[in-house]
Fold this protein.
Amino acid sequence: METTRILCLKNGPYEMTGDLSIVDANGKTVSSEGIRTYHLCRCGGSQKKPFCDGTHSRIHFQSE
Ligand code: FES
């Protein structure tokens, strides 16, 4: 059975794994076929939202 997992990485992004698609506010699919793991920004600082671009490290994002 296929499962989807969302893992909150400490002081970092959400790691999403599984058979999923990511759709933006305009209805455009922004995920790619064949890719099963994505890192989504939760610090608010990424320039590539909804994806993490590593900014969380530079701004010392704290998840707690
Ligand atoms: S969580 Fe990585 S850039 Fe926001």
